[in-house]
Amino acid sequence: xxxxxILSGKALAAIFSFALLGLLSINAVLSGEQSPKxxxxxxxxxxxxxxGKCHNQGGSGAALxxxxxxxxDNYDAVKQAKKAEAICRTxxxxxxxxxxxxxxxxxxxxxxDQKIFICTWSKQ
Length: 124
Known about the structure:
heme binding; about 120 residues; Cyt_c-like_dom_sf
């Protein structure tokens, strides 16, 4: 008579857990999911100069409701990507920074090179 080894419930649970984690990891890679990323320092320096007064902690309520750099690291990767694309669209269209703000703060005007730099980052 052959002896059959039966795995304990704990061993089966451990094997199942590792298999499930492996499948979830593979699914994340295949679906292109990424973890959230901070805004690089060189990009953030430009954004702080031109956008930070309204879009950082202590800024305008309406501006913060739309985009809050202080909370950027709390956004998931999908939300970060959408916000980054929106930043590029908004600055290249000339909607931001607002003309009324630029009149009082001419140093916030983005150069074409800065716009290209930010848009390149937004597509990564």
